[in-house]
Batch of 4 targets.
Target 1
Amino acid sequence: MSQKTRNIKLICSDIDGTLVPDGTSEINKEVFDVILALKEKGIIFAAASGRQYESIRNLFERIANDIIIISENGNLVMCRGEVMARTEILKEDVQDIKKRIDAIENCQLLLSGVKTTYIRRADRELYRLMKEGYHYDITLVDDFDEVDDTIIKMSLFQKDGRAEEVAGEEFMDYWSVHPRISAVCAGKEWIDLFDKDGNKGNAVEQIQKIMGIKVSETMVFGDNLNDIEMLHRAEYSYAVGNAREEVQREANYIADTNVNDGVLKELKKLLAELD
């Protein structure tokens, strides 16, 4: 890294597939120590994920009040329990998404509100995964028509890790030209759907505007397609070594893999330069 790295004021990292393996419920505790040490140097850390806010807060419990949390793929940005930015899906689009996902075999649907995630009572396996693996706050419903809540993200889940293949080109093409909704692969099992204004890149941009931070003062880490907009908001954009090829092409730098603590290694390098 060059001397310019000393101007870093904001670090944003994806979680699953980047900071940790997918679905991990614990983070290397050294990550917390380094984040706090960077905070002492005046550098803000933001955890950015497709996960629910409560899941991220639980994961970073020890330092949750010392970081910014970008949840639901950038559709909800929180700092110390206060909302910094938020989007929502119109009710008519919620119904359209539900109808189209329900028509796909071997897929399940999640609805994400601000404080809880809704899962059908019949989807017990999915419930266990989200509750035990991701530590989500879950509300079970017999039918999604029961839900009377602001929905900020909807997710297609395909347990065999073939979400894009099973959903098919027609499904993805429909949303690619939709005026309000974006659909993006968020992992082998996941396709997330949300308001077009609600992605990780726009969330980072909102933080930069609020905090008065430049692109040249930002460092970002990601691994999947839903991280690309975020990479574009940072001069120091890193794809981890296990990232998809499309993501590596969009990044300015390549870090080590998630299982080899690639993000932690880069943060420690930065910290060493600042000492």
Target 2
Amino acid sequence: MTDINEKINKIWDAVVSGSLDLAKNIIIAIIVFYIGKFAINFLLKVVKKVMLRRNVDETVSKFILNILKISLQVTLFIAIIGILGVKTSSIMGLIAATGFGVGMALSGTMQNFANGILLLVFHPYKVGDFIEVNNISGTVKAIQIFHTILVTTDNKVIYIPNGTLGTATMINYNQQVTRRIDWVIDIDYGEDFERVKAVIESIIASEPNMLKEPAPVVELNELSASSVKVLLRCWVATGNYWTLYYSVNRKIYEQFNQNNINFPYPQITVHTSK
């Protein structure tokens, strides 16, 4: 009977001791949870203020804050379950294995994602810039995490993966204060070049968007098989590029017609034997 009582007492002592330890661990876990929650919120506010002072792009800022928040919350969760006596090594291994598998499966997507972050941080271009990449040119409509959206001059909307933009050669025309425009105008062989030049110079004088320095150039560019090619070269402020381009095109057509300057058209000379 004594042995039975001793066993019962030992079991009871173990239950009481275990309950006390569990209660203590729960209390510690609750304290750690609230302290950790406060620390996470405080750290997020500090990081947000730092990014605001450094003018970090809003998209990048939100992304970094979300990633940081999730990482800290996962760390806090692992710490709490460790306090409660759960072995965390298996959980961390599972998280690592899952992350590795997802990374391998989404390697292309992750490349687009990584380049999207770099594009938003370093700003090689911004919304509204006119860029050219892989023979595709257009105005940047939006910069997203995985894609950059361009609108071409003929109003096509093109989604370019950021991974492509991160590795391809890109031209950002808006980073240039001025741009050069070349017109190569075909005229008939019988036309007087000096008269043609005078008409083009009158067009130059009528265009306020055409820069005076460097001075516009009008030269006889090439003697081709069926026409004489006249070059008009000028410089323009980047923002006025298309306005000037279309205006000069229209004026060349109108002024040449008014002055009876002929544009050549494809011709075939046929020799017949008698």
Target 3
Amino acid sequence: MSTAKKVNGRVTIPDIAARKGGKPVVSLTAYTYPMARILDPHVDFLLVGDSMGVVLYGLETTHGVTLEMAIAHGASVVRGTEHACVIVDMPFGSYQESPEQAFRNAARIISETGCSGIKIEGGEEMAETVRFLIKRGIPVMGHIGLKPQSVNVAGGYRSQGRDDNGAKQIMEDARAISDAGAFAIVIEAVVEPLARAITEAIPTVTIGIGASPACDGQVLVTEDAIGMFADFTPKFVKRFAEVGEGIGQAAADYAAQVTAGTFPAPEHCYHKK
């Protein structure tokens, strides 16, 4: 269980921001109340990621995730937590147009879910928006490196920072989002030496996903980590369980007992006294 400081039982944004260079920050994704209840005691924050589009809805990219979906799932996760800080991804198209658009939609997410903060993708081009939101009371987690919402521009899901120009841009993105006031920055699919260098160069907490053990914390998509999503497995994922296989076996056992007439048994039925 995390040992982060808590106020009224829940890890706060300042608690996470204070973890720079300290005890690693632990995070996983969650999209539903039951999963949030299971994960809550073990993490510092839960990320209601737009990865829900791929993992829960079977979409090819995250682009189909709507603001309404983010709010509905965010509220469900908040209701399922007592300990973890909850951060909600802002969906594609809900913040890129202008800082004002970002504020309107971020305010909806905060007020309608009860979450503690939001996450947006982008580097230098989003620094003004990050600063605008923070000045108006909305905590922001940044996201640099591989940005799934920009997958069409990037030409696919590829590791980032392999050449000098790419590495320089990612470092500049990190500095810009840090200077804008983000309380933490996710670094995704960035070559390890660059992720390590970014973590050393900026005062902001870094959260790695396919980045470096030197990051100030780590996050994974829960369904990847527990073996519930088998469509594809990124290189950076470690399977800590094979829950999907267990569910499949349970369904097979149930089907066999129903077919054989052994379920429901007498103990599963109501009887007159």
Target 4
Amino acid sequence: MATYAIGDLQGCYEPLLRLLDYISFDRGRDRLWFVGDLVNRGPQSLEVLRFVRGLGDAAVVVLGNHDLHLIMQSEGHGRANREDTLGPVLAAPDRMALLDWLRRRPLFHVEGEFAMVHAGLLPAWGVRKAAALGREVETALAGPDYRDFLAHMWGSQPAAWEDDLAGWDRLRVVVNAMTRMRFCHADGSMDFRTKGPPEKAPRGSYPWFAAPRRARRDHTLVCGHWSALGFRAQPGLLALDSGCLWGGSLTAVRLDDRQVFSLPCPRHVQPSGWD
């Protein structure tokens, strides 16, 4: 039995199948961790959703920003982007089952020495606090009033965490940190303007995993979201978005021994910024 963590798919179904063949994945024995952004901008989001949902307990998925964008679009919230490729999902006969399954995925997953999140954690959050905050959002998404939450979820304010935050502001900060964040300022507030690789960040902006005054974390954080960062393995961090959508590669790490598997991908989107 092996557990593999896999980077952002964004609708890249054929590369996923090739990677699973390459690692000799056995769905009766092995498990897959997906770091979020199963869908959007690639050509086969519907096929990805159907496949991953069909894996049942063999798959662990955390939500990414594109997954949440799909859920919002399905309920008439948020703005469609011209780069979106969500139409086949929204028109599929099984869309309600797929969207209900997706909406009930966690934001944060902790198991053994690893913790998985799509984007990152704010400097002040340890793993235990992040897990509790993630559950707050998961409860809102799975609850009877989830449509109200979706109507208030998106936005970039507040940009900083305060323990006394409440209501939609509190949940929005958690969503933004765990699904959108790349950089933080020294005071721990999120910097949504800065993209690109860490080496080109302006002074005063830090990669979230290198921000000052970080809480102690004994887990290795497994994440995606940041294709300009690329694959990165360092103490306490496994970053797996190696830019499959952009013509980079799709990467898996076998968590049992941290062996890396990677295959090149065809380019589906011409990079015009860093996503």
